[in-house]
Amino acid sequence: MKIPFSKLHGAKNDFLITSVQDAPGSGLEDLAIAICHRHTGVGADGWILLDRTRGPGCDAAIRIFNSDGSEPEVSGNGTRCAALLLAREGAASPIRIRTGAGVKELRRLSEIGNGEVEFEEVEFEMDMGCIKVLETHATVQALDAVILDVGNPQCAIPVDHFESAWRAAGAAIEHDVRFPNRTNVSFVRPVDRHLIEVRFWERGAGETNSSGTGSTGAAVAAIARGFAESPVTVLTPAGNLTVRFDGENASLTGPAQFVAEGFFHYGRIS
Q: Is 122 helix (H, G, I), strand (E, B) or coil?
């Protein structure tokens, strides 16, 4: 079976996008694992099914799969990638995309390139909706934590520096018993009142270069704990994202970039 895809990334958090009509009707979890595999597949942090059918209050809808086949509610970086693909096809700004966490509106802040600049980064501001700080002071795996709902579960761990064991801690926190559906984890180092540095352990994907919802959760956690204020620049291993928070709703600004397109030959002998 030939599965067409477009590959894009948002701050080096990479996704493969396939039109929903080009995907099989079953076995999507196994296909997600296969297509996202870094050695035997195309390679990505996640796979997105894009439905271009307009619906009530939205221009399109997406369904996201992590590289382990699990299905998260929303991805900030992944939704920006879908918005860029739609914008390249002529969709006007703002673009409204239905996710598992509701409709997200994305406003394009830079032009779509043509010709030689076709692959330049394009900035989008995404309405992340209402952000809930569930616990400002929690203890998870013996670590100080902030628990949030950013449309998906987030656990932010304030740190003074990034110790080598943060990945193991992230994996343990992801599967902690207090999170029956697992959780995303961010390790947050304050730099100044408007700048934090973050490392990400994502549910279903492991370590990633950046995370849109993780950056949102990390920034709101920093504000809730009093060591940052809006707007917050989030320094990730892949560059900067910006979070604005008004005490209830947040917006996330960051890039998306088109990488490639092609076909994945699913079911071949590997």
A: strand
Rounded Cα distance, 114 and 62, in Å: 26
Alpha-carbon distance of 17 to 47, in angstroms, equals: 6
DSSP-derived secondary structure for 217-232:
HHHHHHHHTTS--SSE
- Write down the architecture of domain 2-126+255-265 according to CATH: Roll (3.10)
Domain residue extents for the chain: 2-126+255-265, 132-247
Query: Are 50 and 20 within 8 A, CB to CB?
Result: yes
Q: Rounded to two decimals, what is the model's pTM? A: 0.92
Joined tokens for residue 154: 């987030």
CA dist 59 → 52, 89, 93 (Å):
7, 12, 11
pLDDT digits (tens, 9 = 90+) for 172-212: 999 999 999 999 999 999 999 999 999 999 999 999 999 99
The token pair that represents 55 in the structure block: 């619906």
For residue 95, the cross-strand partners are: 106
The 8-class DSSP code of residue 166 comes to H
- Intrachain domains 2-126+255-265 and 132-247 with the same fold: yes
| CA 42/CA 55 separation, integer angstroms | 31
In the block, tokens 């080096």 appear at 12
